[in-house]
Design brief:
- This protein has 189 residues and is mostly helical.
- It has one domain.
- It contains six helices and no strands.
- It is flat, with a radius of gyration of 20 Å.
- The model has no long low-confidence stretch (mean pLDDT 91).
- Its cofactor is heme b.
- Catalyzes the oxidation of protoporphyrinogen IX to protoporphyrin IX.
- Its main location: membrane.
Length: 189
Amino acid sequence: MAYYWFKAFHIIGVVVWFAGLFYLVRLFIYHVEANEQPEPARSILKNQYEIMEKRLLNIITTPGMIVTVVMAVGLLVTNQELLHEGWLHTKLLFVAVLLFYHHYCVKVMKQLQRNECGWSSKQLRALNEAPTLLLVVIVMLAVFKNSLPTDLTAWVIFGLVILMAATIQLYARKRRLDQEKLMTEATQE
C-alpha cells in the first residue's frame, strides 16, 4: 500500500512542479519586457514580477520538486526491482536535466533581480519550451517503460507536440509584432 501512496504523491508533486516551471519562465518573459515600458510603469512591473517570481518559486515550484524527488525515493525503496530497469535510468537522466533546468531558473531569477539578465524575451520563450519537451519524454518513458513505441503513430504524436510548440512561438511572435506596430502608430500620432 505504501507504494501507491508514494506514487500518488509523486504524481501530485510532478504536476505542481511543472505548473511552477511553466509559469516561472513566463514571468521572466514579462519581467524582461517590463524594461521596454516607460517609468513609472517599468519599476512597478519589475517589482511586482520579482515578488511573483519569488513566491512562485518558494511556495509552489521548489516544494513541488522536493515532493517529487522524495516520493520517487520512496517508490524506489518500496520497489527496488525498478533500479534494474533500463528505462528508469534513462528517465532519471532526463529528471537530472530537469533538476538542472530548475536550478538554472533560480539563477536567471537572481540575474533579473540584479538587472544582469542577458536573455531577451524571445530567448526566454524558447527556454520556456524545455520543460514541455522534458515532460513529454519523461511521461513517455514512465508509461511505455522498455517498449517505447517507434511506429508511425508515435512519430505523428511527436510531430503534433512539435507543431504545438511551434504554433505557440508563432502566436507569441505575432502578438509581439502587433504590439510593436501599435506602439509605432501611437508614437507617430
